[in-house]
Amino acid sequence: MTGLDSSMPARPKGPRRALALGVLSTILAIPPAFAGSVGMVTPDRWRPHADVGVLDNVTLRVHWYESLALLREAAVGHDMSGDELHGFSILRRNTATGAWVCDVYVVKMRGALVDNDRTVTFGHEVLHCFGLRHQ
After folding, report:
1. φ, ψ of residue 8 in degrees (nearest 5)
2. pLDDT confidence tier of residue 110, bands split at 50, 70 and 90
3. Which of 7, 55, 67, 129 is the most buried (most CB within 10 A)?
4. Do 75 and 109 meet the contact criterion of CB atoms below 8 Å apart?
5. DSSP 8-state code for residue 83
C-alpha cells in the first residue's frame, strides 16, 4: 500500500514541534481569569447589568451626528466626558409604564461600504441597550 493510512496517528516531526504544541496547548488551557497574571491581554466580557438584567423589549431611538466633534459636544451635554468617545447610549426606564427606552448616539455611517469602526461602535452601543455592560 502506497497511500497514508488515515487510522494511523500522525507523529510529531521533531522535538521542537512537540514542544511548541505543548506550549500552545498550555496557553490555550489557561482560564481567562488567570490570563492577566501571566501577562496576556484579557478582553472585556459582556455581562448583564446587575440592576437591569438582559432585556428583550426595548424602544430604540438613534441620534445620528455628522461628525465626532458634534457627537462629543452632545456627550458633554449629557454630563459625559467627550474625550476619546466614538458613541454612547443611555438606557432609561419609564417609571409609570415600566417600558425601557434606549437612546443611542453615534456618528452617521456613509456610503454603501461597511464602515468597520462606526459599525462596531453602533453594535456596541446597541448591546448596552439590552442591559449588557463591560468593565
Report:
1. -85, 130
2. confident
3. 129
4. no
5. T
